[in-house]
Specification:
The protein is of the alpha/beta class. The protein has a single domain (3-131), classed as 2-Layer Sandwich (Transcription Regulator spoIIAA). It has five helices and five strands. The protein has helices spanning 24-41, 59-73, 89-104, 115-124, 129-136, and strands spanning 3-8, 13-23, 45-56, 80-84, 108-112. A five-stranded mixed sheet has the order 1-2-3-4-5, sandwiched between helices. The chain starts with a strand and ends with a helix.
């Protein structure tokens, strides 16, 4: 498995980390696990550390993640998703495309240079997660 998820209780965020080659099925599986963890912990804040990711999926797969998979999984609209900039140029293009796809569908996503900047961005506009989670129920 080239990904892991954890809940950072101090920050109130679900952190998803990718390392190495990531196939489309792994991206869907990891997103499902991260969303389940977020629902269990009552948060709508996600940090995706994609610094070391090498995406082995098409842009259509990237497009379908928010367009189809997030909807099916019930990811709360309005969730904030911070992605760290991948070192791989093709993965960076995919990360920016993903952020655009998310934003156009009501999730708030941004690609940022490094974990510290991503955490700062997530903490910049903390919304009451309980209210967002209640709306999704």
């Amino acid at each position: 498995m080239s990904w892991s998820t954890l809940f950072d209780a101090a920050l109130g965020i679900v952190e998803l980390t990718y390392i190495g080659s990531i196939a489309a099925e792994e991206v869907r599986e990891s997103a499902s696990q991260a969303n389940t963890l977020a629902k269990d912990r009552g948060t709508t804040f996600f940090l995706v550390d994609a610094t070391e990711a090498i995406l082995d999926a098409s842009l259509v797969d990237v497009f379908n993640l928010p367009a189809l998979h997030f909807v099916k999984e019930g990811v709360v609209v309005g969730s904030r998703i911070a992605l760290t900039s991948p070192k791989s140029s093709s993965a960076l293009v995919a990360a920016k495309f993903f952020a655009d796809c998310c934003t156009s569908r009501g999730w708030i996503a941004q690609v940022l240079p490094g974990r510290n900047r991503a955490v700062q961005w997530l903490q910049g506009e903390r919304k009451p997660t309980a209210a967002l989670c209640a709306v999704a129920s």
